[in-house]
Write a structure and sequence with these properties.
heterodimer, A: alpha/beta, Rossmann fold, 15 helices, 50% helix, 13% strand, B: alpha/beta, 2 domains, 6-stranded parallel beta sheet, two-stranded parallel ribbon, 19 helices, 9 strands
């Protein structure tokens, strides 16, 4: 067990209940790690290697907290005095001799990765005052002779960082503040940069890890955008088809068809959100959000539209702009010979269409089919606000997932309207989005370049929310 | 990036599509698969086909491709045979010679050259256009309507009900390919009937038109038609003399005497007619069939890469699999809830011994003052004291003991060891454990911190130890 590997290793250690597991959870992007306010939640050390195609770049160890630090220090001091360079061997000796000792189970789990070459990340809660009892733990860690740094975790509201810094400065080369619950991706990278300074040989691998994680972060954003765009395409162009027996659909057939249509749209949204949560590795998330209501008074009411969708005024402007853009194409094709009448007409038609279309939901049609059969179709969604509501919800959800620390275990309220900043989709972006929405509503396949433009706009929106 | 692959067929496409409905692998598996075939990373199509082959075993239900291809081959066989027979009989009809009037080659040329050229033009237009426009051209083919009728047959219905992933564009190409193949079979039937009739009958060919076409002009038209084989087979181009003697006028009851005199020469037309059939109805059609086959293949490649889920798999092939997961399983802490709560708010004014766990002596005195309590003996334990020092203090304690602890610091096993000495000390009647908050908060504690202490003391199952709970 006591062999060392070439990649950097870090053991996150400290007093019980000071947020060690939260830090590991946040740094390893793993929300499955048990975090509790009961001391002793972590009972064995667990390595969290950052692996790229099977190659380990660095490894982070979550460890149990110190339980009987004074007894270990006493044991170490009782041994025959050795020079400072040999003290690490004494710690190893302690592990070997006490491996089966039930009273030192936690300490052995804690010290094992360190004697195997891991750097020390000592975590304290700087929202509580410094106490002399910590010195025993820090002294033991100093005996190991491994490179070390301290992290000030602010769990509570008070701030005793200055007091802690003065004390920790005697034992650790680096002291950094890091709150795993609120840490952003940038904070993670900065912490890694600090960890890279602990040992000269670790600088390159950690720099490599930073590069990898930055690429991974970017990939996750791109993947999220692709998922949102694909889901938008599916939802906006979806048509539910049901075969009917008579010449026209009965009320029941129409109601059932509408219900099936709504179910599918809700399913598409649920599936894409699950995919987004999977991308950001939030698999154990406990969340509540307003359901996507697809009835006449839910999603399509002017009141609810104001949360994620656009106001009627914004829709009229968007519709008019999209119409005018279409007209402009015709004008340009005629070299302006149409005196830009087409743009004018297009704008007017688009604007009126938006005005009328605000309250429209979706077409319910009965279509004749060959050989006398008839079909009842519902969709695609005609409501002009629908795409913006759907996109708004998708972007908000994706941004929450992207920003949420894996150390957080609290309930996510996605129905919090105040958290959504509708301003991320400005009028210029709306025009670009509307071009594709128009195509999808008409069941036309948008051109690749339109989809690319749409994707870029969604990406811009998401980046806007991510800040 | 290469996107060509010779192994791609409708079957592989349909199987792959069915597999994607069922299984897409995960990033780790897909990346590992791609890394083992690093050379193929530049050829996503080949890589996907290999991936599909490797995972075919997952398709345990009946393959959609089996039903679809069986339908397609049945359709092609029935129509193929039908078109061949129709071609053969159309040939017989065109070449039927009663002996009263010669066979008009213009009819024959219409069927083997003009109609195929028109149909090939329509095919080309359909190939070059997309969506509704291409659909319009396809609707002009009678085959389209025949197949529509055919699709109402029971076995065809079953195939129709399959959720076929064939795109409109791919269906268009498959239809065009089928048109070329069937037309080719029709032309073969026609050619065979021509050769058969030539062998078994002496056919007098002639030409007749209402248009005022001189033999010279007609011959030049025929020579233009035959320009493609002029160099190879000049005898298959009718001479001016043959054209002149073959002209037939319907006026009069009998065949022109000049024609009868040259009856042995009139049969020479067959070579020209055979070559026209071979070149225009067969070779041209064959070329178009090859083009349409290529079109099907190209469209298959495009659709293959556009299938839902493919881009995700390709992304997983090409992006490194980054993992931060722990290989070792977490051992979950089991929290045993005990029924007896050792909580009290009955504090004394005076204690025999007051301990401060991890407090300095001055801090204990300050806390006593704040809480208006007194102690006969006051000791700082934990912190920088050694365990043996604390042990002796605990062993010497008597009667009522107050033990201050920092409420925000959870109980460690070191503390529990100390507490157990107090519990085992028979001189000690009661231990009151008082979790204090920070001085900054006037010793007030958080309820959640107190709860931790309460749970821990509860777990000790000692009736001697009580937790003083004055949390906010």
């Amino acid at each position: 067990m006591m062999q060392s590997s070439s990649y950097p290793k870090f053991a996150v250690v400290g007093h019980p209940n000071k947020g060690k597991s939260s830090i590991v959870s946040s740094m390893a992007y793993d929300d499955s790690i048990q975090i509790g306010d009961t001391p002793g939640t972590t009972q064995v050390n667990r390595g969290f290697p950052l692996k790229v195609d099977g190659e380990i770049i660095y490894e982070l160890f979550d460890t149990p907290g110190f339980q009987r630090a004074r007894r270990i220090l006493s044991w170490l001091k009782e041994q025959e005095p050795v020079s400072a360079d040999k003290r690490g061997d004494l710690v190893k000796k302690f592990i070997v001799e006490n491996r089966e000792h039930p009273k030192f189970k936690d300490e052995i789990e804690l010290l094992e990765p360190i004697v195997n070459g891991a750097g020390i990340i000592y975590v304290v809660d700087a929202s509580k005052p410094y106490g002399v009892e910590y010195e025993t733990e820090m002294e033991i860690l100093r005996w190991t002779g491994q490179p070390s740094m301290a992290i000030l975790n602010l769990i509570g509201d008070e701030d005793y960082r200055d007091q802690w810094k003065r004390a920790l400065g005697h034992y650790f080369r680096l002291v950094r503040t890091f709150n795993p619950i609120e840490a952003t991706f940038r904070d993670h990278m900065e912490l890694l940069e600090s960890m890279a300074q602990l040992k000269e040989e670790w600088t390159k691998p950690i720099q490599k890890a930073i590069g990898i994680l930055e690429t991974l972060h970017q990939q996750k954003i791109e993947h999220s955008v692709d998922t949102i765009v694909s889901s938008m395409q599916k939802s906006l162009s979806y048509i539910y088809v049901a075969k009917i027996k008579g010449d026209s659909a009965t009320k029941l057939e129409e109601k059932t068809a509408k219900l099936e249509y709504q179910k599918q749209i809700v399913k598409y949204e649920r599936e894409h959100k699950q995919e987004i949560e999977k991308i950001w590795n939030h698999r154990s998330i406990d969340k509540a959000e307003d359901a996507l209501l697809l009835d006449d008074i839910g999603l399509f009411s002017k009141e609810s539209a104001s949360i994620f969708g656009l106001s009627q005024k914004e829709l009229i402007i968007t519709g008019a702009s999209a119409g005018a853009l279409g007209g402009l194409g015709i004008d340009l094709a005629f070299g302006g010979g149409t005196l830009f009448l087409a743009s004018l007409i297009g704008g007017a038609v688009g604007g009126v269409g938006a005005m009328v279309g605000f309250d429209n939901i979706y077409d319910v049609k009965v279509l004749g089919q060959s050989f006398g059969k008839r079909e009842l179709t519902v969709g695609p969604m005609k409501n002009l606000n629908f795409p913006y509501i759907l996109l708004g919800r998708a972007l908000y959800h994706a941004s929450v997932m992207a920003k949420r620390s894996h150390a957080q275990r609290d309930f996510v309220n996605l129905g919090d309207e105040n958290s959504y900043t509708g301003q991320v989709i400005d009028s210029d972006m709306r025009k670009k989005l509307e071009r594709v929405h128009v195509k999808l509503r008409a069941r036309n396949v948008p051109k690749d370049e339109s989809i690319k433009e749409y994707r870029d706009t969604v990406l811009k929106g998401l980046l806007g929310l991510l800040g | 990036m290469q996107t060509k692959n010779s192994n791609l067929s409708i079957k592989t496409y349909l199987d792959f599509s069915q597999l994607l409905e069922l299984y897409r692998g995960d990033h780790e598996q897909n990346r590992s698969f791609a890394l083992k075939r690093e050379k193929l990373l530049q050829n996503p199509l080949k890589l996907l086909l290999d991936w599909s082959n490797l995972n075919q075993f997952r398709l345990t239900e009946e393959l959609n491709s089996k039903s679809y291809l069986s339908y397609l081959s049945r359709l092609s066989s029935i129509f193929g045979l039908l078109f061949f027979i129709i071609g053969f009989f159309v040939g017989l009809g065109l070449l039927s010679y009663s002996g009263e009037a010669p066979v008009n080659i213009i009819y024959y040329l219409l069927i083997v050259m003009v109609v195929p050229l028109l149909s090939m033009t329509l095919s080309l237009l359909s190939m070059l256009t997309h969506g509704g426009v291409a659909d319009f051209f396809n609707h002009l083919f009678p085959l389209h309507w025949i197949e529509k009728l055919f699709s109402t047959l029971p076995f065809a219905k079953r195939v129709d009900s399959l959720d076929s992933p064939l795109s409109a564009e791919l269906s268009k190409w498959i239809f065009i390919e089928r048109i070329q193949l069937l037309s080719l079979l029709f032309s073969f039937g026609l050619l065979i009937s021509l050769l058969l009739m030539v062998v078994v009958k002496d056919i007098a060919f002639g030409w007749s038109t209402t248009l005022q076409l001189s033999p010279e002009v007609f011959q030049s038209i025929l020579a233009s038609i035959g320009i493609l084989w002029e160099g190879v087979l000049p005898s298959a181009i009718p001479s001016l003399e043959l054209v002149e003697i073959s002209q037939h006028f319907r006026l009069g009851r009998r065949v022109d005497p000049q024609m009868i005199q040259n009856a042995d020469k009139l049969g020479a037309w067959w070579k020209f007619l055979a070559m026209t059939t071979i070149v225009y109805a067969i070779c041209f059609r064959f070329i178009l069939w090859l083009i349409s086959k290529y079109g099907v293949k190209r469209q298959l490649e495009r659709d293959f890469l556009a299938l839902e889920g493919v881009q995700g798999i390709l992304r997983e092939f090409n992006t490194s699999f980054i993992s931060t997961k722990a290989p070792k399983q977490e051992i979950h802490l089991e929290i045993v809830e005990d029924s007896i709560e050792q909580v009290s708010d009955n504090m004394y004014k005076s204690y025999n011994t007051i301990f401060g766990w991890n407090f300095l002596k001055d801090e204990i005195v300050l806390a006593n003052d704040a809480k208006e309590i007194r102690g006969l003996a006051i000791f700082a334990v934990g912190g920088s004291s050694s365990f043996s020092e604390d042990e002796s203090k605990a062993e010497n304690a008597k009667e009522s003991v107050l033990l201050f602890v920092k409420s925000w610091e959870p109980p460690t096993m070191d503390f529990i060891d100390f507490l157990e000495i107090l519990i085992e000390n028979r001189e000690v009647h009661e231990v009151q454990l008082y979790p204090l908050g920070t001085v900054g908060r006037y010793y007030d504690s958080d309820a959640k911190d107190i709860a931790i202490w309460r749970r821990k003391i509860q777990g000790l199952k000692s009736k001697k130890v009580w937790v003083i709970d004055d949390a906010e």
